[in-house]
Design brief:
The protein is an alpha+beta fold and about 250 residues long. It contains eight helices and ten strands. The strands form two sheets. Strands 1, 2, 3, 4, 5 and 6 form a six-stranded mixed sheet that branches. The two termini are about 40 Å apart.
């Protein structure tokens, strides 16, 4: 007996999140693909989440999440937008990626798109599929840095540059303590202040204050993210920026 699998690809407006999360667990997904991060983008950008999915015999086996923003010049599609979030196709099969990207090309034609961008997932080993099947006229490159943290303390310290190791030793010498916390109105305002000041010093774009408010609302402290603060004599060090560490969900 021969059992043929039925392959179905379509553009969808509502994602089955249970199936989506199951797919994330079995592909090279990142934090940026998570349900909560997509909800964050939806809230900040004030646009709905769209997707192209592939199902085989009713099982979701591939998906490309994206956002469409309407402007006075035309439609802009991005997978995924907002400060270099990783997007792209999530699947384990090249055939699924092929039909998704072909459907994405059709979507670009139908929507009279001004700009269509896919930011590749650096952990996907099959990124050549975009060159083959995604109709594009420009490719830009970025360097992605990733450090594995499954190291002991001495091995991890050896990965830091000399200036960082010196700063750690200095903090230890002056009895600087590190405290984890969640976000609140005061920490949001302080973090935004230092973030804005730091980015402006580099002539860079800074995230809005609402970004920090939405992190507090959408994510759970201690599970999805941590805020690390440096303290001297139990008083927060104002000249040192707190760090938000977002976990992969």
């Amino acid at each position: 007996m021969i059992v043929k699998s039925e392959l179905r690809v379509e553009i969808i407006e509502k994602i089955n999140w249970e199936d989506y999360n199951s797919l994330l667990d079995n592909t090279a997904s990142t934090f940026f693909h998570s349900f909560k991060f997509l909800q964050l983008l939806k809230t900040l950008l004030k646009v709905e989440i769209g997707a192209i999915e592939v199902r085989e015999n009713y099982d979701m086996t591939g998906i490309l999440p994206y956002f469409i923003k309407k402007t006075k010049f035309g439609n802009v599609i991005n997978s995924l937008p907002y400060f270099g979030s990783y997007g792209g196709v999530l699947t384990q099969k090249n055939e699924n990626a092929k039909v998704i990207l072909e459907k994405f090309n059709e979507l670009n034609e139908e929507k009279d798109v001004l700009s269509s961008v896919i930011i590749e997932n650096p952990f996907n080993i099959n990124n050549e599929i975009y060159e083959k099947y995604f109709h594009h006229n420009y490719t830009d490159s970025r360097i992605t840095q990733c450090t594995k943290l499954d190291l002991n303390e001495s091995e991890l310290l050896s990965k830091f540059e000399k200036r960082v190791r010196w700063s750690i030793k200095k903090a230890d010498k002056h009895n600087i303590k590190i405290k984890k916390s969640g976000l609140n109105e005061r920490i949001n305002s302080e973090f935004f202040h230092y973030h804005k000041k730091n980015m402006e010093s580099k002539d860079g774009k800074f995230k809005s204050l609402d970004f920090f408010h939405q992190i507090e609302k959408i994510f759970e402290a201690g599970k999805d993210y941590d805020v690390y603060m440096g303290l001297k004599d139990e008083i927060p060090i104002k000249t040192i920026q707190s760090i938000i560490c977002l976990h992969k969900i």
